[in-house]
Amino acid sequence: VDDAARVAALHASGVLDPRFADLHAETIRQAINAFDAKYAEISWIDVDRAHKPGSPVPGAADGVPRELAVCSWVVGDDAQVVIADIRRDPRFARNPLLVEHDIRSYAGVPIRDADERPLGALCIMDSEPREMKPTELALLVEMAQRLMQSIRERSAKPEPALDPDAAVPPG
Q1: What residues contact residue 130 under an 8 Å CB cut-off, 6+ apart?
Q2: Are the CB atoms for 114 and 152 separated by under 8 Å?
Q3: pTM of the predicted structure, to 2 decimals
Q4: What is the pLDDT of residues 8-47, one digit of tens each?
Q5: Of 29, 65, 115, 171, which sits most exposed with the smallest number of CB within 10 A?
Q6: What is the DSSP string of the chain?
Q7: Residues 6 or more apart in contact with residue 59 via CB below 8 angstroms
């Protein structure tokens, strides 16, 4: 994956627009509930930062450095990543964000644009080691696809224009 082209596609896609905050929040809520997980996140992977809008992980909603985001591996490899026990994985066992929030397991899938470029990842994380069944990963993939479809549909609709004749409340 050409990362410069992927990052350009990320910015061109509009997924970082705050008007999608409700879609991010709804997807996160659904993933937490569907998997009975402690956390779920949507990470949009930029040049040097992972944007994590609406993240329930304390301090992560403003984003984190890309090198600390497990989701950057999902995007970099354009593949699903499942870590049943983070403490046993030398790539992540000492990651300060995971240690601080007692995150022991991770499962993430790419969120792809219409051209199949991985722009980000949808993941679930838990405080206990956890295996993922193929059917569970399939559901997470479906949720990621639904999120991008909703973003594309909303992006295709013109934003309501401000009505110049609308009454302006007294200031």
Answers
A1: 84, 104, 105, 107
A2: yes
A3: 0.89
A4: 999 999 999 999 999 999 999 999 999 999 999 999 999 9
A5: 171
A6: --HHHHHHHHHHHTTT-GGGHHHHHHHHHHHHHHHT-SEEEEEEE-SSEEE-TT--STTTTT-EEGGG-THHHHHHHTS-EEES-GGG-TTTTT-HHHHHTT--EEEEEEEE-TT--EEEEEEEEESS-----HHHHHHHHHHHHHHHHHHHHHHHSPPPPP-TTSPPPP-
A7: none
